[in-house]
Request: fold
Amino acid sequence: MCRRPHFVLLLLAMLLSTLTSYAASPNRDSYSLNDNWRFYYADAADGANADYITLPHTWNCVVEEGKYLRTSANYLREVEIPADWQGRRIFLHFGGAQTVTELFVNGRYVGEHHGGFTAFIFEITDFVRYGERNYLRVVVSNSQRSDVLPLSTDLNLMGGIYRDVELITAPRNIISPLYYATEGVLVEQHEVSAESVSGTVRVYLSTPDIDHTTVTMRIVDEEGYEVTHRTVKATKISPERAVEIPFEFMNPSLWSPERRTMYNVEVMLGDEKNPIDKVVVKTGFRSIKINDNNRLCINDIPVDVRGVSMPHDREGVGIAISHEELTADINMVEDMGANAIRSLVGPHADSLYTMCDNKGLLVWIDIPLTRSELSLSDIVYYPTPALRNNGFEQLREIIAQNYNHPSVVMWGLFSLVWQRGDDVISYIGELNDMAHSLDVSRPTVACSNGDGAINFITDLVVLRQNVGWMKGSIEDVDIWCEQLRSNKTWSTLHYGVSYGEAGVRGHNTELLERATRNTRHFPERRQSEMHERYIEQIDQEGIFWGVWLDNMFDYASSHRAYGMNFAGMVDYSHSRPKDAYYLYRARWNSSSPTLHIADRGWKVRRDTLHTIDVYSSVDMPVLEVDNKSVTLRQVGKCHYRADSVVVRGRTTIRAYDAQRTHKDSITLCN
Reply:
């Protein structure tokens, strides 16, 4: 079992604990419910020996081959609801729990949520006892299901309440938090240019006591200047129907990767000066297009998309990742020079996308229609109403919850799905139509390693390629690129490329050979060579709208050797970059110089003569072996090599620039 670090709580203190507010407004209050939980597995005889834990929490965080636990568990908490809250509404908001969650309040069933990556909310107003202690029981399961996506995935579904939980109190008549656990305000962008911005603010209301009111919307820039303001009458209010408020204003400051301008969109219910309820959301305005040259454009300006796929877990904590850890992850993405991230299988925590808004990183968010490449017997889709509706519902949640983030520029509809068994193509077509009906401003995308019609459904497609790993040779990527250019049918696609394979520091080899199926040997040098050859050829071709690396970090995967996918640029600790990281840092990071001697994990060499590779963004670095200069030749962009370097006994190898401002060194022996 895994838990976030926490202090030991006395039982009496837990039973009598009161709520601590961390965000208050004149109308609403929110309280963290992360502490004071008791946890035990569902198959335990009772909860008498329950552990005391603090959220976020998961029961899978130590990766051991064959020890991936898929089960159900109970989370118990007691909370006192003040008597003076009588007449107010009460909600429980979950940032995420994996994968199926059921909520009980005072022994009564409230509801359930099916999906492991999105937020969800329950109203518990009619289930609580005011002025008394109330009992919460949350049952969470990550067991295999045939009615919840994903049916197959390379990522482990870790289980647990792995994101924050909060209690919200609000007036009776409000802007609804029940609309897919959002703030109830979605800013739809129609026309965006340097001259003007127009669109519609959609406001979802929950007003059981009134059937007509006024709703005021104002948009305010970063300096506090109001750029537009409008009040509309809302009549025959329905939770399913939004109040639509059109807007337009001139001379906007647009959001872009270079200039991350955000606006506050304020919505007031009732009297503007003394509103019944008020919600403020942040957003940025930008256009997203693919031009005739297959380039992704933000505000009509082409962007060289340098993306990385982001898994959800890390060493020691599993998926129960803190905001500080997410911040460290994004800092590493930036340091490597990537400008885009892909949220694999499902969305990350909302705070990650807020960081991307502020830093100008582009985001692709997947829905969990995917499969594991290694499990050839896995089914990815059943044409049952339950599974189909779950896919539709998860797509609605993902789009609604991330709608206002300008950094989110595309919705991923499937990943590595094959066309065996029941017809999945028509279902993907329905998902694509739904995504466009829910969001007119963003394209859809998919990651595909198959041929045929499945590649022609979404607006964009990223072609997963791995020639030279277990088939063919790395040189075959040149032939593949030529086929893409010359094939009239495929040339109509808006395609990007995705690639990457495993590498482990400490897995060394004298002779680089193509990998074999079921191998347990993943030399880091082989991973580096694949990336060296791929990026050199792909950059020369210039035919892809984006380059996406699999992956930024290693992640837990029960399908694989050692229970781990080792394709990351950084290991599972998220702290030790591999050689390939520095290859891309040298090519992609233009603001901070890179000088890195590769193969440093292979310290003990058997042979005397060796090749030494250096990744450098400084011009023609100098190499010394035991203080003697050695010739370096350039073999690719930011890639230099010295042949026949002699290693005898303990040998020190140094690299530096002409001014000796930037240095690196390794010590080898044989």
Summary: Residues 385-402 form the longest helix (18 residues). Helices lie at 11-15, 323-336, 350-359, 385-402, 425-438, 476-486, 524-541, 579-588. The CA atoms of residues 596 and 615 lie 5 Å apart. Residues 303-589 form a domain with the TIM Barrel fold (CATH 3.20.20.80).
